Amino acid sequence: MSTGPTPPTKPQVKALNCPGCGAALTVRSFGNAVTIVCDSCHSILDAKHPNLQILQRFKVATDEVRPLIPLGTRGKIRGTDYAVIGFQRRTIHVDGLPYSWHEYVLFNPYKGFRYLTEYNGHWNDVSILKALPEVHSYGITPTVRYLGETYRHFQTAQAGTSFVLGEFPWQVRVGESAVVADYVSPPRVLSSEQTGNEVTWSMGEYIAGNDVWKAFRLPGSPPDAVGVYENQPSPMGAQTKAIWVAFAGFLLLLVVMMIGFDIIATNKQVFTGSYRYDSNQRGEASFVTDEFDLPGHTSNVEVKTTTDVNNRWIYLNYALINEDTGKAWDFGREVSYYHGYDSDGSWTEGGQNDSVAVPSVPAGRYYLRVEPEGDPGYGVTYYTVTVKRDVPQYSLYGLALLALLIPAVLLTWRTLSFEHLRWAESDHPPIKWGNDE
Amino acid sequence: MIRSLYLLYGAVVMAVLSVAQYQGWSLARMNEVKNVPRSIRDNPGAYRSIYSSYHHYTGGK
Fold first, then answer.
1. pLDDT tens digit string along A396-427?
2. Other C-beta atoms within 10 Å of A359: how many?
3. Cβ proximity of A381 and A309 under 8 Å
4. In terms of CB atoms within 10 Å, which end of chain B has fewer, N or C?
5. DSSP H or E segment with residue A114
6. Hey, are the CB atoms on A246 and B7 less than 8 Å from each other?
7. Do B13 and A403 lie within an 8 Å CB cutoff?
């Protein structure tokens, strides 16, 4: 690839004939093309020679590729009109497998040459660099810096030209090869092409197939992009960062809310009573407590049970009953505490206390109906029941945190998966956990 | 787009949390019973709790 146009007064099209087969040649960049390829006999001609000397003839395989954008098509790239004047297919081999991409040579008589590349439906708008990037070849992944941006090495391979068509601003040959190294910083890619001692740097920017079709007013729709390309911008990349920033904001708000509700919550003890339950005693164990008032707006009621259970359990059937309306909240709580010592050392299970929040209880006059249960033979258990009004529920903050976290984590996972797919195709694939083979 | 959706979603979560805290929502399992007769105060044993058949844990390690 090269630049350096010789701008004519206006774009010229000159008709010539191929010296190989006599077919008419259409030259769209007269004075700027170095080689022209005959579409009929596939002769590569020296455009600088007065008689278009034949430089090379190549055979075309049966699977000859036709350009997706026909030569001569005009389109607007970044506000400038360009004509497609050349097309080539280049191939690299990785692990013995060929991977081919296509390059389109674009020409504007005032702006010079520009290139479009296409691989599996992924397009790049490419231009030649006018300054050399700074190469840092140390470290696990070499990098280059250009215009303040760091590009990570993606892949280095020997690329061969396997098909050419149209005009080229350099001495193109089928079979010629160059060492191509790509460094990525999506949506851009810096590429170096080394042929002998000559190194050419170019910069590509990812462009959607639909934008190419729109720019060149092509019929139909572009081929679907397959897989993840080396400099394809992650559809979630920028969003993920924004989501985490928003999450941090919500987290702060959550802390403020927690402090605020802690301050305004009355957390008021409205009843307490101590009781004795003898599991050996026959007869009705259930009883009702004295009445108590639940003040304020509709809020929760915390019922706390404190016991002296030791290697046993007590079960309490509770009913919080509204004296006036007859509405009851019915619930059961088991308090069990076990401990011991075995070959692993000492252990404990459960605890002697329990608390539960009865949700959304309107203000009013209430009492508790309590029915204790225990294994016969346990004997006497002492327990205290304490009732509090409007107690902050921290588990709700946990749920809210989880609800806020899940979308952020899912989005991050999608972003990481995208990057994983990107780098899986590089010379620096992500570490594989486990054996896939 | 996704950020806007997330902001909207987060705002809804915070709003629901505010209502939940103010109204005293809880994760505890409760059974609401209507029209409990006043006679319960005199005869607590007449009330049948749906939790009375609970399978009690009698274990330990």
1. 999 999 999 999 999 999 999 999 999 998 99
2. 20
3. yes
4. N
5. strand A112-119
6. yes
7. yes
pLDDT of residue A43: 86
Mean pLDDT within A170-174: 89
What contacts A185, CB < 8 A, 6 or more positions away? A149, A150, A151, A152, A231
The closest CB to that of A246, out of B10, B30, B54, belongs to: B10
**Nearest-CB residue to A319 (from B14, B25, B49):** B49
Q: How distant, in Å, are the alpha carbons of A55, A421, B29 from that of A415?
A: 49, 10, 39
The residue behind tokens 């003898």 is: A278
CB A349 within 8 A of CB B16: no
Helices and strands (DSSP H and E) totals, chain B: 1, 1
Closest by CA position to A366, among listed A437, A300, A419: A300
Q: Which residues of A touch B7 (CB under 8 A)?
A: 246
Rounded to whole angstroms, the Cα distance separating A242 from A295 reads 44
Say if the ipTM goes beyond 0.95. Answer: no
CA dist A336 → A82, A314, A315, A339 (Å)? 82, 6, 8, 10
Residue with tokens 């309490």: A316
B18 contacts A326? CB cut-off 8 A = no
CA distance B37 to B34: 9
Orientation of helix B2-23 relative to helix A237-264, angle to 10°: 20
Contact B32 A329 (CB under 8 A): yes
Residue B56 class from Cβ within 10 Å (0-12 exposed, 13-18 middle, 19+ buried)? middle
Cα separations (Å) of A167 from A56, A57, B31?
Answer: 14, 15, 83
**Core vs surface per residue B2-23: b (16+ CB within 10 A) or e:** ebeebeebbeebbeebeebbbe
Beta strand pairing status for A312-322 and A268-278?
unpaired
Q: Provide the shortest C-alpha distance from residue A26 to chain B (in Å).
A: 48
Contact indicator for A381, A315 with CB cutoff of 8 Å: no
Q: Does A362 touch chain B (CB under 8 A)?
A: no
